[in-house]
Specification:
The protein has three domains: 200 residues, 3-Layer(aba) Sandwich (Rossmann fold); 70 residues, Helicase, Ruva Protein, domain 3 (Orthogonal Bundle); 82 residues, Winged helix-like DNA-binding domain superfamily/Winged helix DNA-binding domain (Arc Repressor Mutant, subunit A, Orthogonal Bundle), CATH 1.10.10.10. By secondary structure, the protein is of the alpha/beta class. The chain starts with 19 loop residues before the first helix and ends with a helix.
């Protein structure tokens, strides 16, 4: 029997938990032409939500494109991704792709490759080296608009992990994108990101080109009642009984975090499958198992930290959520020296994704790391 709790990848179909309200609102906004700024901490199910929305839009005769910028480290790579994720899927064959690019970008000479698996790759790297990356990007960035004109259909383009443009001459790339996007008709954009402080700077600073260009759409945790029903149903559908008090204990431990809840339920299901019942001690056993599984990774994080960073991480692990993180009371309680020391440690933690800030409170981004730290420091 297959474990019904999935994590670590894009979740679809019946395995997708709730989010009906968010799906409905996003579909309405995107069909109306409203650009969206979608952000949440990592592993909140952001990409799974986007894919679900795009699936619905496709049924409504909307052309969709998903461009993942994670790991995209150059403007040349961005150029190729834009063509590969917009033009290639819609034109289909080498001949049609070549004809489209020749007609719409007559001065560019892309290299088209038919791969062994049947996919088609596009490369404009040589062109970018000769003409200049930013000049080529200034042309290619209009591909969604040209596609909308040819197909006579609306187009929705998602840039996932949009904060990554900061690593490739971000400000100039932003200027190019904004100057073109604002003139695109029948094309709507979703800018998705997991590093909120970077996304806030890109879209919230008056000095940046994308200032207030898109409607903010923060993605929160799944409502506890809805998540409870999902967990209870998944256990019961696979013949495993679970008491409602244990379901609530799971959500209390994970604080309703989508990824960690699915991960913990996955481990509990593995423990309970033979006896067909979740026991009172199974939650504790599952937490211990997950802490043990990831201990090597947690050791690497711990060993990389300076003394003040370790103290702050331990403090966050013990406290759970901290709103008074710069207060003298908190600093003295955990011997954190000063507010400036805390600020520097937080800056590093946010950059590395170790800590997340939500509504003015700080907490570790990995509940199992918190458990490991508490055990190690005890």
């Amino acid at each position: 029997m297959t474990n019904p709790f999935l994590y670590g990848g894009i979740v679809t179909g019946d395995n997708f938990a709730d989010r009906e309200k968010e799906i409905d609102q996003l579909v309405k906004d995107l069909i109306s032409g409203q650009n969206i700024l979608l952000y949440s901490p990592r592993r909140y199910g952001k990409t799974s939500l986007i894919m679900k929305v795009l699936e619905i839009l496709q049924k409504k005769e909307v052309i969709t494109s998903f461009i993942d910028l994670y790991g995209c480290i150059s403007i040349s790579a961005l150029i190729d991704k834009i063509i590969e994720k917009t033009v290639v899927p819609e034109q289909g064959t080498l001949q049609k792709i070549g004809d489209f690019l020749s007609e719409k970008f007559s001065n560019l000479r892309p290299e088209l490759t038919l791969n062994p698996d049947g996919s088609i790759s596009v490369s404009l790297k040589k062109e970018a080296q000769v003409t200049g990356e930013q000049k080529v990007l200034s042309q290619v960035i209009d591909a969604p608009q040209k596609l909308a004109e040819v197909k006579k259909l609306p187009v929705v383009v998602v840039f996932d992990e949009f904060q990554e443009i900061s690593s490739m001459d971000g400000l100039n790339v932003e200027k190019i994108m904004r100057s073109h996007f604002q003139h695109h008709k029948n094309v709507t954009y979703v800018f998705s990101g997991s590093k909120k402080h970077v996304m806030d700077e890109i879209f919230g600073s008056e000095r940046r080109p994308f200032y207030r260009f898109a409607k903010p759409f923060p993605l929160g945790k799944i409502p506890r009642e809805d998540f409870s029903k999902f967990i209870y149903r998944k256990f019961n559908e696979t013949g495993i009984s679970i008491d409602s008090s244990i379901v609530q204990a799971i959500l209390t431990f994970t604080d309703g975090h989508p990824y960690f809840t699915q991960q913990l339920c996955h481990e509990i299901w593995n423990i309970a499958i033979d006896k067909k019942k979740v026991g009172k001690k199974d939650l504790e056993k599952a937490v211990d198992a997950l802490v043990r599984i990831h201990s090597d990774y947690f050791i690497k994080i711990w060993d990389s930290l300076a003394l003040t960073q370790r103290k702050l991480l331990l403090a966050l692990a013990k406290e759970g959520r901290v709103s008074n993180i710069y207060s003298n009371t908190f600093i003295e309680k955990y011997n954190l020296v000063s507010a400036s020391h805390v600020g520097k440690a937080l800056e590093y933690f946010e950059k590395e994704g170790i800590v997340e800030k939500t509504n003015g409170t700080y907490q570790t981004s990995d509940i199992f790391l918190s458990e490991w730290v508490k055990i190690k420091a005890s």
